[in-house]
Amino acid sequence: MSNREVPINLEEQIDVMKKYVVFRQRKRMRNFLQYAGYFRVSRYGKYLLSYSGVMGNKPEQKLLFQLYEFDVKLRNLLVLYCNKAEVRFKSAVSNAVSIKTQDAVFYLNQQYYTPSKSEKDAKKRKRNEKYFQKFLDDILDKENALRKDVVKHPELKEYRRGGSRQNNSLPVWVAFSYFEFGTITMLYSYLRGDLRKTVLNYAFSKEKYKKEATKQMDTWLDAIRNLRNYCAHNSMVSGMTSSVVIRDLNDSPDVLPKDTDLFSRLYALKKILPEKDSEQMKKELKKLIQRTKIDIYQLNILPAKWEELIDRIKEF
After folding, report:
1. Phi and psi (nearest 5°) for 286?
2. pLDDT at res. 157
3. Pick from 30, 123, 164, 214: most CB atoms within 10 A?
4. What's the mean pLDDT in 198-214?
5. pLDDT at 177
């Protein structure tokens, strides 16, 4: 029999928060917990408490509110650039592969994919092939659902019965406008090797890319996808750790100090965003940090020399 956790009321939640931060007046904490919820607030409290040794004392309630406010603004900033990266990459895959194959619905056709992902390990190959069928079935279902959902997508009426294109599947430039970023990143990971390189050749600065570059891109896309999910679900991004980011070998090793922290997500964004957007992201992030009342370096939210590190990341 599984253990059951017993819910606690608001006043009990306030008492538990005293484990993490110091406060005497309960009113502000009560209002904050009513708004944000105990679990969400406790994440920030536990994070601050883990740095009490660095700060020299147990954190106060005021710092908790300041960290939360900073994190909200940070999420709002980063989700904008995650969305820009998403749009850019969706367009790159849609345009590059459809033009290369001369097939507007390539995403539905198994011949353009490598189910094994060319893995040498037999177990990994088998696992990839097994999951690929689920992925392809899901793509087919999503395309079908888009065409059939009259209520959500009345704008696609020409692809339904009676429409001028009722016998056509949705072309990729239409379907990708609705597909989630996670679907596109998975699709890219399964594309044939030559098509994976075609996408990079189409969208980025070099004339030719090797297989190694496509593997790096997989990790950058995954990093941006999970950062976007954190932001979309209002999860705490300060101090976040997530999927591994592979460094571009053209960059110096010290440019990416850690491969799972928040800065590694910025590294991935810098690689995929156009130069103008990555520069604007840096300016806005710098402005946000200058205005906040917390010490983001003491709390290890970003490296002390994050600006210098971002400037040294080479164009992909």
Report:
1. -60, -45
2. 94
3. 214
4. 93
5. 95
Q: How far is CA 56 from the centre of its chain?
A: 34
Q: Is 200 helix (H, G, I), strand (E, B) or coil?
A: helix
Q: For residues 185 and 176, is the Cβ–Cβ distance under 8 A? A: no
Question: Could you give the CA distance from residue 211 to residue 197 in angstroms, rounded to a whole number?
Answer: 7
pLDDT at 15: 96
Q: Which amino acid is at 116?
A: S
How many helices (H) and strands (E) the chain has is answered by 13, 0
Mean pLDDT, range 24-34, rounded to an integer: 95
CA distances from residue 41 to 29, 36, 162 in whole angstroms, order as listed: 10, 6, 53
What b-and-e string marks burial along 163-181, b requiring 16 or more CB atoms within 10 Å of the CB?
Answer: eeeeeebbbbebbbebbeb
Distance CA 119, CA 112 (A): 17
Which of 181, 209, 206, 204 minimizes the C-alpha distance to 194? 209
Beta carbons of 78 and 270 less than 8 angstroms apart: no
Model pLDDT, residue 1: 54
pTM score of the predicted model: 0.94
